[in-house]
Amino acid sequence: MSPDEIRALAGEYALGLMDPVAALDVERRAARDPVLAAAVADWRGRLIELDDAASPQAPSDGLWARIEAGIETPSPTPAAALERKPSLFSRLWSDVTALRGAALAGAAASVALAILAGAAYREAQRTPQVIAVLLTSDNRPGAIVEVFADGSSYVAPLSDVSVPSDRIMQVWTLPDRETGPVSLGLLADDGSARLQPVSLPAPKPQQLYEITLEPSGGSPTGKPTGPILFKGFAERPR
Amino acid sequence: MSPPLSASEDLNAAALAACAQGDRSALRAIYDRESPKLLAVALRIVRRRDLAEEVLQDAFVQIWRKAGSFDPALGAGRAWIFAIVRNRALNQLRDDRHVPVEDEALEAAAARDGEIDDAYERLAEASALRRCLGRLEPQRRRAVLLAYVQGLTHGEIAGRLGTPLGTVKAWIRRSLLSLRECMS
């Protein structure tokens, strides 16, 4: 990207103009690209003057108490995340940013998955090569995909989806641009499922996974045709 | 932009470091210092006071949890804190947008035009941002301000200004580049 492109991208991000998926992408890139991170920080440092131009508003008396109640749960240090506490599950729902911390995401996702999937998961417990936390369009955790060395995958929705009777959720990945999206399988009962091995190159970090809504029986074209319910990128568990 | 603060001058950066160590009084100090302004910023975006307080509540919990990831090399603690509140407010606003916009809401929105002019007029006389925004053609300046101050999307700005979407996108992009050049 040219310096101008980086400045404009960082500016659009700092203005708040990006949809959640694009914003997440910028955050992910900024975490690895110091030039982009500095460009975002520079815009924030300048635009904050517009925030300062707002007339101060006194918060209501109870607000601080509500904040304090919210931080009662211990902060999610990796050690805390590994303890299998139900509170972690609610934290997953309420705090997408915890998922953005890549180091934590693997551990947190595994824990949530274990809670959700129970016996079925334990039975099949092996180390996945990658885990993808798929987000809804408004940036909430929507589903988790774990991909194993034999090409099989385990998919668990994390939010309720009302699937019409003539539709089905279909799981896809994008191994590379030339191949295009490849189906991993269907979620028959609208719930978690272990999907049969698919012959694909080993999944890479940052590989795209998504779930779309397709006609029952799956997409008639072999490529996604319906709306995207959840999408996200894979990471290796840490 | 004002010169970067050193860690000892940046009260918020020091407080964030203390939060990361589990010091609640540091979060309280941030709250006491910044919450009236943060509430105002959230209110301009989400419009309803109860929602704005909810935004602040969620944002402060996030600030507490994420304090350890704050990197002083990437700007002041205050900008980091404001960014968290802004992001939370934008998410809140966009959650609500699953509901179709009523005519009434559009009228109320039009009545808010004064607010963005106000935000611009209230920038300090000596501010480079003010000087450089002032060089933009008024409709383009409004487009930039509608995005930042009220949290509107490209499409909503196009609707508000009665301008095609592609034009609005190009305006904002070019405005960002000329602002950047003007301020450097």
Observed structural traits:
heterodimer, A: 238 residues, alpha+beta, 2 domains, eight-stranded antiparallel beta sheet, B: 184 residues, mainly alpha, Rna Polymerase Sigma Factor, Chain: A, Arc Repressor Mutant, subunit A, 73% helix, sigma factor (chain B), sigma factor activity (chain B), DNA binding (chain B), transcription (chain B)
Structural notes for this entry:
The complex is a heterodimer of chains A (238) and B (184). By secondary structure, chain A is an alpha+beta fold. Chain A has helices at residues 3-15, 20-32, 34-52, 63-70, 78-82, 86-94, 96-100, 102-123; strands at residues 130-135, 141-147, 153-157, 167-174, 182-187, 193-195, 208-215, 228-235. Chain A folds into two domains: 3-52; 78-235, no CATH class. Chain A is built from eight helices and eight strands; from the N terminus they run H-H-H-H-H-H-H-H-E-E-E-E-E-E-E-E. Chain A has an eight-stranded antiparallel β-sheet with strand order 5-4-7-8-1-2-3-6, covered by helices on one side. In chain A, strand 4 and strand 5 (182-187) form a beta hairpin. In chain A, helix 1 packs across helix 3, helix 2 (20-32) packs across helix 3 and helix 6 packs across helix 8. Chain B has 184 residues and is mostly helical. Chain B folds into two domains: 11-96, RNA polymerase sigma factor, region 2, helix turn helix motif (Rna Polymerase Sigma Factor, Chain: A, Orthogonal Bundle); 103-183, Winged helix-like DNA-binding domain superfamily/Winged helix DNA-binding domain (Arc Repressor Mutant, subunit A), CATH 1.10.10. Helices cover 73% and strands 0% of the residues of chain B. Chain B contains ten helices and no strands. In chain B, helix 2 runs antiparallel to helix 3, helix 2 crosses helix 4 and helix 6 packs across helix 8. Chains A and B meet through helix 1, helix 3 and helix 4 of A and helix 2, helix 3, helix 4, helix 6 and helix 7 of B. Chain B: One of its GO terms (biological process) is DNA-templated transcription initiation.
